[in-house]
Design a protein that fits this description.
Layout lengths: L1 H8 L2 E4 L2 E10 L2 E9 L4 E5 L10 H4 L7 E5 L16 H15 L4 E6 L1 H12 L4 E7 L8 H14 L1 H12 L2 H4 L4 H9 L3 H12 L14 E6 L7 H10 L3 E6 L6 H4 L1 H16 L1
Parallel strand pairs: 4-5, 4-6, 6-7, 7-8, 8-9
Antiparallel strand pairs: 1-2, 2-3, 3-5
Helix pairs in contact: 3-4, 5-6, 5-9, 6-8
């Protein structure tokens, strides 16, 4: 127990026999928080959803084979990363991920993204296809809702703040089974404490993104995941993405909402591992 506390304060913690260092990458907008774990095998890059930080992947990465290498990060305005100026686009967030890969020496990776993370992953595949082995696109689309809806959310956050929005957003994230668990309160706290200006800027980036006409250019193998109780990206929206991609498999989780990596991490990790083994085997 004492060793764990010491290592955590020192910027390094143990999970079993695996070391997970916390790293900082300086970008022109501020400091980006990175976390690298695992061995020297196939690299996986995880991109979290709006209003969460890299901890949303904790229960998935802890279930991965020790040989796999996992890179996670906090987007601008999320977690321990700086917020920077507003006015950025999804392509700018994709460049942040590519810079993080360069920083830790990852040339090619399976890109795993949830919600906006999945939209960022699609942009990476279009911008730098040679850096991508495959895509795991969870609860996402090529266009995440109407721009008008995002502008309304931006205004609501400006007027009311993040904490006032949290309960309604949580019901869009989680199925009832997860909402009934005590841990749901922890995810509400994460959301409520998200930097409002960072959240607003990221909403604006989503509002301006639509790559539907370019999905046919993404030739990488893909695994598209949805949740039957997802109110943010309903099952039919995610199914349409899978159908539009040239080489996509589709899996629907029957008991989850928008964040199956949180709600059903064992099933998520199992699907991810099988996909990685198939495309790299």
């Amino acid at each position: 127990m004492h060793e764990f506390v010491f290592l955590l304060i020192g910027g390094l913690c143990h999970f079993g026999d695996r070391r997970i260092p916390m790293q900082a990458l300086e970008r022109d907008w501020g400091t980006m928080h990175l976390n690298l774990s695992g061995g020297d095998g196939t690299a996986l890059v995880f991109i979290n959803s709006l209003g969460t930080d890299l901890r949303m992947w904790d229960a998935v990465t802890s279930r991965l084979p020790a040989s796999l290498r996992a890179l996670r990060m906090d987007k601008r305005g999320h977690g321990l990363s700086g917020t920077g100026s507003q006015g950025y686009r999804i392509s700018d967030l994709a460049e942040d991920v590519i810079a993080a890969m360069d920083h830790v020496g990852i040339a090619r990776a399976v890109i795993v993204g949830c919600s906006i993370g999945g939209l960022i992953a699609q942009h990476i595949a279009l911008m730098t296809p040679g850096r991508v082995i495959g895509l795991v696109l969870s609860n996402t689309a090529s266009k995440l809702g109407a721009a008008e809806g995002w502008l309304e959310r931006i205004e609501a956050v400006r007027v009311n703040g993040m904490a006032a929005m949290a309960d309604n957003i949580l019901r869009r994230w989680f199925g009832q089974a997860m909402l009934d668990r005590p841990e749901a309160a922890l995810w509400r706290q994460m959301l409520a404490r998200t930097d409002a200006e960072g959240y607003i800027a990221t909403c604006a980036a989503i509002a301006g993104a639509d790559i539907t006409d370019r999905l046919g250019e993404i030739a990488h193998p893909a695994l598209v995941l949805g949740g039957q109780h997802d109110l943010a990206t309903p099952p039919e929206v995610v199914a349409n993405l899978a159908q539009a991609l040239p080489r996509a498999d589709f899996l629907m989780f029957e008991t989850t909402g928008h964040l199956p990596a949180v709600e059903a991490p064992e099933a998520f990790a199992d699907a991810l591992i099988k996909f990685v083994e198939r495309i790299t085997g």
